[in-house]
Amino acid sequence: MPELPEVETIARSLRVGNGDSPSLIGAQILDAKLLWHKTLATPSESEFRHRIQGQTIESIERRAKYLQINLSEDVLLIHLRMSGDLVAGEGTEPLGKYPRLVFTLSKGLQLCFTDARKFGRVWLVEDPLTVLDKLGPEPLDPEFTPAVFAARLQARKRQIKPLLLDQGFLAGMGNIYTDEALHLAKIHPATRADQLEPKQGAALLATIRTVLNEGIRRNGASIDWVYRGGEFQNQFQVYQRTGEPCLQCGTPIARMVIGQRGTHYCPRCQVPVGV
DNA sequence: CACGAGACCTGTTCGC
DNA sequence: TGCGAACAGGTCTCGT
């Protein structure tokens, strides 16, 4: 489920708590139980348990689609990939289906990493940059300007959709929000990046921010059986609406495969240019 | 550098 | 109803 808005939603709820989820700030990690060995990217399981025991959760933030949990000595990084989730609560029995890594915390709390498809990964490192150093700019960073974004587009020949999904080019976009942003910007997903007018490129960053902010405002999107409780799925204009009328022009939404990803677009609003 | 295919995994939904 | 195929919010690696 996790693109930037979903990860941001999780980071916020772990940080400040919400209805059924307690804030984890200040909690101490008493132990960690690894239930699927590949979930832990580094270090080894024994070193992981040894190092993390006794550390306190000092702050929680998000970088791209990574959750960054700053501990008293180290940094815990979590990537949810396709089906990962984090559930905080009370008790020692793992919360939720498909638990892969369970942290026992002080105050009778636990943090449970669940992940049906087992793609998610967890790192415990001293320096987060050893994991995060290849990431591109944050789309919501106000210092990242539309002009800079447009200029970076001009230097690339790739199709715009795979380029937006490239985390080294721009960090945090996933399949849903990319399709939605391109539709809002009226750009065909197969358009070559360097074929976009600088004006279009600048406008594209604006629509990216629009859909991301709207996603965050609605606590992310919940679709299929990987449920999170967000409501952004009700705002989809194209994603998973193949054959349904475009809400702008009535033309049936089309689906094609670009970069091995299902891609949804309006063939009338998003006219192919230089494809 | 760009691009495609294959891996990594499991669960749900679709088509016959 | 049953069964295989297709599909799923992500990313890595390898070959061309």
Describe it for me?
This protein has 275 residues and is an alpha+beta fold. The chain has two domains: 4-132, N-terminal domain of MutM-like DNA repair proteins, CATH 3.20.190; 146-265, Orthogonal Bundle (Helicase, Ruva Protein, domain 3). 25% of the residues lie in helices and 23% in strands. The chain is built from seven helices and eleven strands. It has helices at residues 4-16, 45-52, 129-132, 146-154, 160-165, 175-184, 198-217; strands at residues 29-34, 40-42, 57-63, 66-71, 75-79, 84-90, 99-105, 109-115, 121-125, 254-258, 261-265. A five-stranded mixed β-sheet has the order 2-9-5-4-3. A four-stranded antiparallel β-sheet has the order 1-7-8-6. Strand 10 and strand 11 form a beta hairpin. The chain is elongated and about 55 Å long. 39% of the residues are buried. The model has no long low-confidence stretch (mean pLDDT 95). The structure holds a DNA duplex (16 and 16 nucleotides).
